Amino acid sequence: MNPDPTPPGFFSDYEFLAGFNGEPGVFWKRLCEFARARLEAESVCLLLGGSAPGMEIRVLAQAPQGVAKGLAKAGVSTELPQVTSPNFEPMPGPLGRRFQALVLPAREGLPTLWMVAEGLTGGDLDDLTDSVSKEIRALTDMYQARRHALRSEEKLLTLTEVLGLGLVLGETTHFKEAALRVCHELAAPMRASRVSIAWLDGQDLKLKATSHGGRISSNSQEALALQQVMEEAMDQDNEVSYPEIRGTSVISREHRQFSVAREGVAVLSVPMRHPKDVVGVVCLERPAEEGAWEAGEVERVRLLADLVAPRLEGLHEKTGWFGRRIWRSVRRRAAGLLGHEHTGWKLAAVVITITFIALALIKVEHKVRAPFILKTDAAALVSAPFPGYIQEAHYHLGDVVKKGQLLVGLDRRELLLEQADTEALRNKAEREARSNEAESKLAQMRVAQAEVQQADAKLAVVRHRLNLTRIVAPFDGVVVEGDLRERLSSPVQSGEPLLKIVQIKDLFGQLQVDDRDVSYLASNMTGELAFTSRPAEHFSVQIDRFEPVAEIRQEGTVFLLRAHVLDDPQSWWRPGMSGVCKINAGRRSLLWIGGHRLVEALRLWFWI
């Protein structure tokens, strides 16, 4: 090995690298060749470290070609994170006998670089390695500084680029062609290895174009990975990059996984909006050695995306067959109904619509409501048998009476006097008849016998009337009319009604149905009634017949219906009780039940 730190050709090589402005790949390769020549090493490799946990260390450049495999077999990559010296020093452990390495501290946004030299031999290497280390660091810093300055100059969006991109889009008439040209126009100034555009088709984001020169199948793993990355930006409606830009607070999980799986590429996704809604996403990938995306570059891509989004959306609306274009137009016009604005009004409209549909579809039993009065045909009206006076009353209204039970007693005194007088006249006539018979006075005897017969007939009438003074119940029942306890000693006339008794059987409800509802009812329909006094208890009924003629009452025109009670009569039932009856008139929708009255009124009002 030549210990001279400045061998022939040194200055020319150094000056070439110090002023190099080409691509990073060329520079790193020439730098490895320069270091190998200076150190007279067997091989020199430049390795790029992971900027994220789990990212593998990969070879960036090597001299000569193919020596990196030997480093991998020797396990150099596993020991590199322990190398922290900026000068060439033997690597830790057994590897130190063959390999020396230095670390090139990373600039902001760039990953860590290590340079590994193999096969350094000789006695005094410290001066040489220190000198070469300084040269390597100086050349690296100068190149990265120039690249950083170049990128800073390109951050500004020039009028020329805007006009050029506008002209490019103006020349194209198809969406896919325009998207592909946008990808190519963005790739060069942004120094991106690949630019992809995905567009919103319905509810899904689909990959439409990429600048890498080939066509990516929509079902391939690469296309799905790109779509997931761009969906992450679309869901947040924000720019997402990895490595993340300092000061941002966005979720970049998909971007990180995408970058780790592709050797640490810097990835940036920017939503494309028209006018305020996300219609697509542009994704840019950059090699790790080019560094992370900066805020100025993100702003530049955002402005370009906002510039081209309206034109691309207009072209996208015109793609596809006729039906698809119409569907897109309808969906766009209805976007206001489906967006996130005016949530309260939209929620109210949805609730009202769902309620209306439910009311129209759900059917329940339509019940016709009608008041009723409990009545019975088993009744007796007790009247006065002859003129007289009420002497006693043995009941109260509502009392349950048995057949033959004494209810009313009329004054018997006049009848008793008449009975005594008639009996006296009979006895007198009977004595005269016997006396005339003894004296053989036949004519007088026959007259006396006729008077006896007349007295007997009169006695029979008097005794009959005496029996009629005791008015008894004709059958088991309940007294419902005629409170005679307040009329004691008052006169009554022959045939005058005194009280009414009814039997608790064969009871029926007399329904008063509104004439607007009678058309919904028919014989044999069933329902339930409830008494006003006991509304919690319901009893089944069945319609027997209709009264043919309506009655006009104060509350309106009603038809009288007779409803037979199907359940057993209760002991507390009394004719004349009232309540409400509901008749099952068939199943109808809730909307019809609630609105048919209004519809009928409107038809009468507007005569339709």
Shape verdict: rod-shaped
What is the arithmetic mean of pLDDT?
Answer: 84
Rg, nearest Å:
59 Å
Counting helices, strands and paired strands, the structural category is: alpha+beta
Number of helices: 16
Q: In whole angstroms, how far apart are the ends? A: 114 Å
Q: Which parts are unreliable, with pLDDT below 50 for 5 consecutive residues or more?
A: none
Strand arrangement, major sheet: 11-20-24-22-21-25
Describe the sheet with the most strands: 6 strands, antiparallel, barrel
- The fraction of residues assigned to DSSP E strands is 25-35%
What's the arrangement of secondary structure elements?
Blueprint (H helix, E strand, L loop, with lengths): L9 H9 L5 H16 L3 E6 L9 E6 L4 H7 L1 H4 L9 E2 L8 E6 L8 E6 L7 H28 L5 H13 L3 H13 L6 E8 L2 E7 L10 H16 L3 E3 L10 H9 L4 E8 L4 E9 L8 H23 L4 H12 L1 H4 L4 H19 L1 E14 L2 E5 L4 E6 L6 E2 L4 E5 L2 H26 L3 H27 L1 E3 L4 E5 L9 E2 L4 E6 L4 E8 L11 E6 L7 E8 L4 E3 L2 E10 L12 E12 H17 L2
Antiparallel strand pairs: 1-2, 1-5, 3-4, 4-5, 6-7, 6-10, 8-9, 9-10, 11-20, 11-25, 12-19, 13-15, 13-18, 14-17, 15-16, 17-19, 20-24, 21-22, 21-25, 22-24, 23-24
Quick tags:
608 residues; alpha+beta; six-stranded antiparallel β-barrel; five-stranded antiparallel β-sheet; 25 strands; 26% strand
Give an overview of the whole structure.
The chain has 608 residues and is of the alpha+beta class. Helix content is 40%, strand content 26%. It contains 16 helices and 25 strands. α1 packs antiparallel against α2, α6 runs parallel beside α10 (295-317) and α7 (175-187) runs antiparallel to α10 (295-317). The chain is rod-shaped and about 200 Å long. The model has no long low-confidence stretch (mean pLDDT 84).
